[in-house]
Amino acid sequence: MVDVMVQFHYPGGAPPLDRVLAIFGLSAEDVDPGYGVVATDPREGLYVILVRDHALAKVSAALESRAKHPAEGIYGNARVKPMG
């Protein structure tokens, strides 16, 4: 199962995962709960979650319905393996 990174804007400090699930209309099975909510730029209110590929349509629809923020979006999460 491939996970993608979803970066979103949330002012006022890091939201708990259950709040993020509600914002994007996701269930616990749609995300990687072990990854949780990670700050990418807390001063700017930017955070990331890992979303399962089967939930991309939900995330896309939720992002489209939100006020636009230039840093929000869906990003790849390539697996990195050591060489040699």
Structure, explained:
By secondary structure, the protein is α+β, with helices and mostly antiparallel strands. It has one domain. 21% of the residues lie in helices and 25% in strands. It contains 2 helices and 4 strands. The protein has a 4-stranded antiparallel beta sheet, covered by helices on one side. The two termini are 25 Å apart. The model has no long low-confidence stretch (mean pLDDT 92).
Quick tags:
84 residues; alpha+beta; four-stranded antiparallel β-sheet; 2 helices
User: Can you give the helix content as a percent range?
Assistant: 10-25%
Give the CA-based shape.
globular
Q: What Rg do the Cα atoms give?
A: 13 Å
The DSSP helix count reads 2
- Main β-sheet, spatial strand arrangement: 2-3-1-4
**Low confidence ranges:** none
Determine the structural class based on helices, strands and strand pairing: alpha+beta
Structure described in brief:
The protein is an alpha+beta fold and 84 residues long.
Set out the fold topology.
Layout: E1 3-9, H1 17-24, E2 38-41, E3 46-52, H2 56-65, E4 73-75
